[in-house]
## 1
Amino acid sequence: MEQPFKKIIHYATLAPSGHNTQPWKFAIKDNSILIFPDYSRRLPIVDPDDHALFISLGCALENLMVAANHMGFSTRVECFLRDGEAENIHVTLNKEKVESDPELFNAIQHRQSTRSQYDGRKIPAEDLEKLRQASRQDKVSFILFTEDKDIEPIIEFVKEGNRLQFRNNSFVSELISWIRFSKKHALTTCDGLNSASMGLPFIPRWLGKFILNTFATPDGEAKKCEKLIRGASGLALFIAQTNDKESWINVGRSFERVVLKATALNIKHAHVNMPCEEVEVRKKLQQHLGLKNERPLLLVRIGYAEPMPESYRRPVKAVLVGT
Ligand SMILES: Cc1cc2nc3c(=O)[nH]c(=O)nc-3n(C[C@H](O)[C@H](O)[C@H](O)COP(=O)(O)O)c2cc1C
């Protein structure tokens, strides 16, 4: 099973992750694949409680399951999520007749965070309904905002979160540490946010740092974000019903299925997470939506645009460990 399992792990690694940290390790054990969190890749400033890290693991898990089903394996998932060495998501795979979704499987290789300006075209109602269907997951709620009157107040929360982040030197330093300004750096690490995937030219690292530190002002970044949202066809919000690792993993699974379905429908997406990441703004968003303990954790704009250059991934051998 080693070869097909390695192929399945390859598809899992194509999942999105915060700052493209790829905070995962995998192991093959008998007829199982285990996914471990890689805490050496955590983001202590933007994600102090690791919820985004576990959402990223949920995205990888969903890709793994879609790919396994496509290759004729059933999947049974058990989560062992107490802190410690053995913390893992355990997926048992058995060769048997299973239903697979070729459309979702094909989308794994084409899905990307498309950070460019969208063209404002409306998404047909039947496609919005397909996204709602794809979002269905235990412990997760999903809201689509497509009317101006619903989007406008969210824009203000995004701008507030964005300003707070760009006023925080630690946030900017952490972000810069994951940007791969030069092609050489991007190809060496095969992780992080490469300039091309953000719509920028590859430039020397010192110049990139200088430009970001000098020109990325809180108000300028907030305005850019506002323009990007106004060009989108809508916003999609993912809410964890409880505040624990299992719920965060489920948010990742729901998110990944929605964006795979969106990709199959040629709908692009990009994150505007700021109001979910800044705790004070998140509280205001919770209040605005009438939520109590449920946490809004991921916010993406959706719409139509040309594809952008892709981000890189580490090869399977770099993320595969012995058990
Ligand atoms: C939990 C999570 C949080 C993310 N937050 C942001 C974000 O705040 N801003 C952003 O531009 N992209 C965000 N992303 C997208 C990642 O940067 C992106 O997935 C990664 O760079 C890999 O690129 P790809 O999605 O094109 O494969 C997030 C992704 C995940 C899974």
Note: The longest strand covers residues 295-303.
## 2
Amino acid sequence: MIAPPPGIASLTQPEALARYATPERGAPGYTSRVLLPANAAEIAEVLRAARASHSALVLSAGRTGLVEAQRPAGETVLSLEKLNRILSIDAGAMRAEVEAAVPVDTLNAALEAHGLVWPMEMGSTSAATVGACVANGSAGANAVCYGTAAHLCETAWGLWADGSETGAQTGPQWFTPAPQVLAIDSAAPDVQQGLIGTQGVLGVITRLVLRLHRLPAQREAALIPVTDMPAAMRVLALARDVFGADVEEFEFISASAMALVRALKGEAFRWPFARDPQAPFYLLLQVKSDDAGEELAAHLYGFLTETLHQPDDALGYAPLKALKAIRHSITEASNHAMKALGGGRLAFDTATPVEVFGDYLAALEAALKQQHPQVQFIAFGHAGVGGAHLHLLGTREQPVQAHADALIKRVFDVTAAHRGTFSAEHGVGSKWGAAFAERTSPQVVAELVAAKRQRDPAHILNPRSFGLDQLVSRA
Ligand SMILES: Cc1cc2nc3c(=O)[nH]c(=O)nc-3n(C[C@H](O)[C@H](O)[C@H](O)COP(=O)(O)OP(=O)(O)OC[C@H]3O[C@@H](n4cnc5c(N)ncnc54)[C@H](O)[C@@H]3O)c2cc1C
């Protein structure tokens, strides 16, 4: 355990430590000290002291990460929460300079007055921080339009884990990926990007210049029932033909996910359709326009009726907020169902190339039904970039943990057979360390291990993430 360098705030009282030890998902961890440096110079001091004393650190920002990266297992927690200033907003250049631990919503509240947005749409943005999003390459529901947080970063500055300065690091540009290409893959970090996308195992991002976008003049959305996911992907191709880069979101919701939302909302649930379409899947298509004079609603209506030939009673047209409320209720609905069923949950965040995404989901559901018919399969997510959030729910009689290894293997095998990744945007953390060693290409693993040795020679920063504690000692 590191002794705090003089002048750096630290917490040791058990009641103050508890919130730093508890990840968003997974078992609580434990720590006996949290360090709260106030700026980059103090972080550098902490890193140098940790290196000198071979004391491990776990990074903590908004603590919304889903892969247990921020969960300490006895390490000192290095909290970035004091790096929370918006340094400048340049509306003309559409850039904002910020410290790393500014929450996404805080930044966007400041940008709204300028008609600008840093477009990361996630359920966690009230707490999730910009630096963590860039470090993790996080991807929101609108990644199909704007790319990941890494693409929304022009420059990041920070410290390597040995305490030395990284200099300026440039975020990649976003191009709409070809359908045969895997668009998002946080299981294959590119060490050439430095701290961007390498999820805090090489160093700490302290400051960033972010690429901003104009707030659209208009947005419209529709819920579209489809017979299967291959059909859904044909809708995506048609939407791209008609709306081009103005397809802002293209999400999917399985009937099982929709049923959970209906159960959660009860009487308050409103279908946006004249009749219940009883479809196996629903798409949430959101389009935008920068032209306030465009008849966007009529344009979308024309797409639904003339391009997709949807009958009037299957037109899922409702205010955007109402449709979004359905999409954003799925996780809460899944939490309720998990508690009621009492058999636990396995959660996955996979992705495949868009061209095989529909076939992938169909194959995965069939494989799980055949091998584990007792498991409830909930699927939803970012179909526009081939991303799927998968929740497998057990029952008290048949808990998922009893078959966890077999279920994880099945999901990951089917994903790999469709050229997919076991972690689209949530990262690897300590949760998927074993999968990283087994399933990521040996070249990517070797490059990360080599970079870890170079940038973190004492192996002090997030030492268990990616299973690097095992991989580095094995190499
Ligand atoms: C309800 C909910 C919805 C979510 N939806 C999405 C989603 O749609 N898409 C998505 O991608 N994620 C999603 N997430 C996951 C999460 O919000 C992201 O992973 C986010 O990047 C974590 O930010 P944080 O500030 O909470 O980081 P923390 O959880 O505090 O940190 C996690 C790890 O990130 C790294 N890290 C943090 N800050 C830095 C830094 N400055 N420099 C280097 N490394 C750093 C460290 O390894 C750290 O251990 C969701 C989470 C929740 C709870």
Note: The CA atoms of residues 220 and 287 lie 6 Å apart.
